[in-house]
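Re: export button greyed out
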Amino acid sequence: MKLLEAEHVTKIYGTGEARVEALKDVSFFLQKGEFAAVVGESGSGKSTLLNCIGGLDTPTSGSIRLNGSDLFAMKEHERTVFRRQNIGFIFQSFHLIPELNVEQNIIFPLLLDYQKPDLSRVEELLQVLGLHDRRFHLPSQLSGGQQQRVAIGRALIMRPMLVLADEPTGNLDSRSSEEVMELLIRASRHYQQTILMITHNTNLAASADRVLQVSDGFLKDLGGVRP
Amino acid sequence: MKHARTMKSYLDLVPISAKVSRHQSLLTRLCIVLAVFLVSCIFSMADMQVRTEINQSISQDGSWHAVFRGLTKEQAALITARPEIAQAGRYEVTNYRLDMDYTISGKNTAICGLDETFLQFYPALSIEEGHFPSGNVQAMVTASAREQLNLSVGDPITLDTPQGSLTFTISGFTSDTSSMLRGDAFGLLLDIDTYRSYFSDVTLAADMELYVQFVPFCRIQRVIRDICVQFDLEDSSVGQNAKLLGLMLQSGDDYMMQLYITALLLAVLVILAGIFMISGSLSSSVARRTQFFGVLRCLGATRRQAARFVRAEALYWCRTAIPMGLALSVFTVWILCAFLRLMTPSLYQQMPVFGVSIAGLASGALIGLITVLLSVGAPARKAASVSPLAAVSGNAGTLHPVRKAACTSRRRVQTALGIHHASAGRKTFLLLSASFAFSIILFLSFGTMVDFMHHALTPLQPYTPDVSVVSPDNTCSISPALASELSSKPYVRRAFARSFSYGLPAHSEEGDASLNLISYEQYQFGWAEDSLIEGSLDAAIEGQGVLVEADGEHSLSAGDRITIDTELGSYEAAVAGVLSYTPFSREPGVWTVICSEDLFYRLTGEENYTILDIQLDRFATEENVEELRSMAAGCTFSDRRMSNSEGRGAYLSFSLFVYGFLAVIALIAVFNIMNSIHMSVSARVQEYGAMRAIGMSIRQLIEMVAAETSVYLLTGMLLGCGVGLPLHYLLYSSLITSKWGTPWHLPVSSLLLICLVMVLAAVLAVIGPARRIRHLSIVATIADQ
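Workaround output, generated via the alternate export path:
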């Protein structure tokens, strides 16, 4: 079943001499539960693609549908709520809220959605993420790996259909990177979630079901790396 | 092609960094501009006000500093010869109170003997034509005598005195004084020696005076004490030009000392407000750029270099911000001065069109610079202590070291975060709350000056006449026909007459009494309505009752009855209403009773009026006034236009400055609140981007900013009321209660007004960032980090 469909997506920045075509007629789809990696050189358009898919940036043309809903046919407020409920984000720089502790950061999207947090679910996530002992710590009291685990928890709490990760291990050492990747894969399998991850690391890309390569704005499907 | 200038020092990064983060540095500069503007504008306005008051004081009361009475010729010469005396002039007067029998062509005349130097003390008493009298046959007369008697220089003029007639030759004409015009009298001015040869026997000792002006920077009070000791003068023999000395900070009067302390306190408050505004902005400017300083440290900058960078940056901002603040204040003061000149050109013609207050500008510049240098210490230390790691770690926002998590269990998350944003950085929170509070403190403190103005200066009442025609000897001798003829002139805007019957015997339940019965017509009844504290006017207007003034002499109230005995018999009148005030003087123990013209006629049989007050059209000319004067021949013609204009000018200038202060404070409050919130939003824009990425809606983000603003606003208001109200009490007690006895009251209207201004400013402060948030690019803000 197709969860994500991108059709003829282009993204152009600037005009005249400053015109840059970041994405050129990109079309692809992801199945439900699929774990895909996006690889490519710096400036190739990977992050632009991820931002467009996540509804953070607007494509110049083309359409992006998530579970049949056209993201850019929605009004801004509607799209924000849709994103909040259906897409989880994990950033390279974590982007945790410094004023909130671990548990509050994780349940933050629920609070924004005026939902009452399911305590058992929060407990379960904290256990899975290995953050149970640190639930009342502030981000500034955590290591980089721990902070990224909090960010993963925050991305998963709403049980989104799609998780978008922009170089989630880019700021971590190799040991933390392995932990985070293992956690991400385990969690997505467990919760049947589709993951689209940008990475520079070929080893990490190898752990994905499918690899997409972006080069000079064009997308190429490199196919599955695992049987 | 332009080449970039080669950097010679790491501090050359300052202008480059300012250019790159132009928007953020603009806000800090704006804060410095506002603080400098506030200080400079208020001090410049105060300086201009003092200058205006000095000019007014000199034109009304003269430029003399002290006057010594009852001196001998030798004593006067000795005082004049003292090195502290810049100028001295003798002045003696007969019939100053216009109660003696000295007349020119039947008109009451005051006779003055003076030295020519005396004229320099009184710019209002200038020689309009001719020259100062010389020899013992020449005299000057006031201009009204020239107009009314059709005189010219060289004409003879005869003064009738109880001792016989004296004839002088007119050497010149001087301008009229308001007191002479009001008393419908002429002034005859003689050289002091001539005067003494004729009038020394009839001059009261108290009216023989030596006016002196001291040299600049002389300690006037000490010199006056010295002179008193040297010549054994009593306090009553010395007078001071209290207003002028007060404005020159030379008064020794207790009340003036209280005024000085009040002015000092207000000045300190203004300075403190400036300091708080600048400190708050600098502190948050450094706090929001922790990463930048981290990068500097990463690249090898020492702690000292980082601190020096912050100082250099602050001084760089001052280079443009201080001149801008000063320019803005100069411009504001120009507008104010232009307005004053436009409103009352006669009073403010000496005020320069483009006047600059050196004291105001210097205080603004100095306070701006010193405050920046003082305020930059803490942020510089903060910048120096930033860890190089801060540059490479990447949580959303590294604005303040967070010690405690926000409380999200009881409030909506956006509200909780907004409150936390406001209160987490203790120092910034205190500085911003204090700068908000200062708006209230300043407004309440300067607000006491409005009360002071209402007590110290009386504005012209709606019933104040421009000219009055008065029956001689308080009789009723102005016929209704004359009154009607005078009122029918096209340049007469309004005329209203009164009849007086003095000392009528009366009885009431309180016993026997004596009363002054006064008739009113429709206009005067209309004005009396404002002071009606009991009953109604209707019965009095219809001639069915009377109005009494509540004067503490009786306890009559509406419905009581008074029996009034007149030559026509006894009449029992019902008290229709009680007035808190009437503009008439009376002997102690005598009641003031008002009735209609019809009732007055029934009681006294008198149809004529005692006084006719006339208000002129604004385009009325001197010729028109002269026409009225000639029509009212046989009656006293009192011209109050000059004294009205003096009173109106004093009230207008003071009120313009006081309300100008308040407007500047309110304006600063609005800008300060808007700027502070704008800065706070700018500082957290990356954090907002992250929140938007996670799923926070625009509405939620605006609610968060609104919650943050509300916290500053509420704490600012509480702090402002907590400090401002006791201060208001203190200032009110010292300025007003101590002088006029009016007890302190809660300044509800001022408080409500400034709170309303602050709430409106807070709403505006949220609208700006809200617009920015709506256009916030999530991708761009996240990528910035």
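Chain B has a mean pLDDT of 83. The button fix ships in the next patch.
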